[in-house]
Structure formats: C-alpha cells, structure tokens
Amino acid sequence: MEPNPNEDRDLMRRIADGDREAMGELFDRHASGVLGLLLRMLRTRAEAEEQLQDVFFQAWRDDERYRPEVAAPRTWLLMLAHSRAVDRLRSANPRRRRERDAARQAYLDGHPVETPRGFDRLQREERRRRVAAALGGLPDEQRSALELAFFDGLTHHQVAERLDAPPGRVRSRILLGMRKLRDRLAD
Amino acid sequence: MDHDEHRGEHEELVALHALELLEGEELERLEEHLATGCPQCRRELARRRGEVAALAEAVAEEEPAEGAREALLQRIDHEAPRQPPRTLSFPAAEPEEPVPAASRGQLWWLGLAATLLIAALAWGLASQRALHGEIDRLEARNRSLQADLDRSAAELAAVRTRLTSTQAILRTAAGDPVAVLAGLDAAAGARARVYRDRRGGKVLLVVDGLPSAPEGRVYELWGLVDGKPRQAGIFDTGRDGDGYLITELPAETGEVEGWTITEEPAGGVPQPTGTRMLES
Description:
The complex is a heterodimer. By secondary structure, chain A is mainly α.
C-alpha cells in the first residue's frame, strides 16, 4: 500500500489511544522500508529483523515522543532505525545510547524535520529512484564517503581511515556531497 | 559559543551532527550550544536531518519474515500493555516535556534480554538444559541492573514478570550448543557458546567473561568453512563481560568446522585482521 502521510498520522493518533491494530497497519506500511535500511546497514538478515522488531516496539512504547508537527511517521521510523543501527555498528554502550537518544529527541522538539521539497508527495518507488540517482550521480569520492558515514555508521575519522584520506578532506567531501544531494533532490 | 560569531562553523558542525558523525570535543561543543536553545541551529539541524532521512529511501525495500507482524503485536501485548489513552494534538499546541531518558532507557538491557529469549524461542531451539546457565546469568544481571532502576518500580515489576514468563517458555525450548569457545591469551577466562537452529541458518552466540572492546573496536565472529573464515557478525560485551549476537550464515554455507572471535575495527572487516580472542 502506498503510504499517505495523513493516513499515517491517523494511525499514530490511534496508536496514542492504545490501538494495537493501528500498530499492525503501521508495520504493514513501513516495515519493508525500515527493514531495507537495516539490512543495508547491519548486513545480516537476523540482526536486521531483530532491530526491525525493536524499532516498531520502540515506536509503540515511546509513541509519546512522536510529534506529528515535527516529522512524518515514516521519516520518524527511518530515523529511529538509522540511529539504532548506528549505535549497534559502533557498539555504543547502553549509557551512551541513552544520552544520544535523549539528545536527538531534545534537539528535534518543535523544529520540523524538513525532507526535501515535494519529497513526501512522491510515490515510494519514485522516491527511491530519485535518491539513488542523486547519490549515484555524485563524484565517487563524495558518494563513498557519504555511504560509509550513513550506511556503515562510521565516524568521519573512521571514514578517513577506511578511505586512507586526511580527516579534513573527508569531512569536506561529506559536506559537499550532502549539499549536492540536497540540490538534486530539490530539483 | 555565540551563534553569529561562529555561523559558518555551526553550519558545518550541524550538518555533520545530522549524519551522527561528530565525536569528542566537537560533539560536546555543539551539544552545549544546542542546549542553549539557539533557534537557528535547531532549525538547521531539523532541516539537515530531513535530508539525511531522505538518504534512507535510496535502499530497496525488503519484505519482513513471515510472522514478523504477529511477533511484534504479541510482544506489545506481553511487554508494553498500553497505559491509559492519551490524545495527540495535531499539531501539538503545547509541546510536552519529553520523557526523561533515564526512566525508560534504563530498561534497555531488560528489553534486550527479553528480545533475546523470544528470538531464541521463535527459532525453535530444542530442549531445555543448555541455556540454564545463560538464564541464571541474565537473572543475575537483572538483579544488578535493578539496583540502578530507581524511578519506575511498577514498570520494573511488569518487566520482571514478563522476563520470568519468557524464561519459563525458553526452558522448554533451549538446545545444546554446537560449539564451545574458550578464551585465548588475550581473553583468558572468557568463554562462549554457539547455538544454531535446526535448519542451520540462524546462529545465537552467548559470551561471558570478555571485557568490552576498546573504543573504536568491536568483536567479530567467524565460522570456519573449508578452512576459511566466514564473517558471521559483530558484537560487543557489556560492563559485566557478557555479550550476545544473533546472526545467520548464508543457506549455502557448508559445514562449519570451527568458530573464532577476533577483535576488529568498529564496523567489522571482511577478513580477520585483529587479535584472536576465543576459539572453539
């Protein structure tokens, strides 16, 4: 089913009222997108499936943290999944995870997460195609730095080590890559 | 740190922070600044995070395993029965105070323990004896964690009940390990067990007595097939030296002749390069 952000927000409202079936519907709509991201990052299916369960369980348990005015439910779920996978890849200890989680939430309060203009209205496959094309169109050195940072959860020093390049240069590549990506997605 | 004086630097740090790339002193500096409530930087961060979230859409979707939805709903029923209904305001006129991270966050390990037990059960590990030791250790861990859990006695009692019932289920479903690993020189005293489900693909590793990997490092599990190491997943241990890994080997993987755990750079490596810590 093609996700509709308004219908998703209705689901979140029902979830806030304790409607577990609404959680099931949210899972039907977005589990495959979230699992795709987790599998890409964590690489093993069992671990990705385990984290998938945890992401949706967290979405249920911490649903009061969801702010409809801040992010579409799908964006929120993907951000939860990415953060969890980064922590997993970096083997963050529980205390550090809690601190990061609290910090992420605090900074988001009241400031809408703005996906690129018009992006939420695109069909799912069109979104995928567009981001993949924008990413694929970057110069190799920028794309690989961005992919290692985003999908492999490496810090920029680790990216620099992996690419055998000075951290400062890697940092510039990442920033430049993000800026180009932003321009291309907004086209 | 005044915003206008450091505008360019802020923008750069915020963009890197949206990708969760900052660490150390820079991270502290930016977090300190964000904590002052700087509206420009908070707005900039929300914008950059939106772009980062869009990156997640570049990946092809994957259908979850059969039964995943039902497993989620069952877990919800068992572990998080809903509190009295609230009503979300759309948009929220009065932002609510976020739940303090400590009250829920401290239950993280209990949640992990319950997840581990449920996952092992779902995979059909047979018979009960071999995991009693791990269950006892989990219970011991629960007791020490409970000493730290000072805010939510009612919630904690509910978790204890759920964990106990999950353990009871697992006692009827646990199997013998396929391999036992002993600590080498770099990890004397550590030991680990590997369990596999009957169909062979799913792997559960349970480790104890292995100190946490140093900063920027992880442990990596390898299965030896035809004399060559096959990547089987990365993990770390907690303060008490216990660790778990739930992973799988590709269906076409042949017989696993042995298991090794090495210490590697964060994120893992395709071939072992680091110190061998445990071996079967």
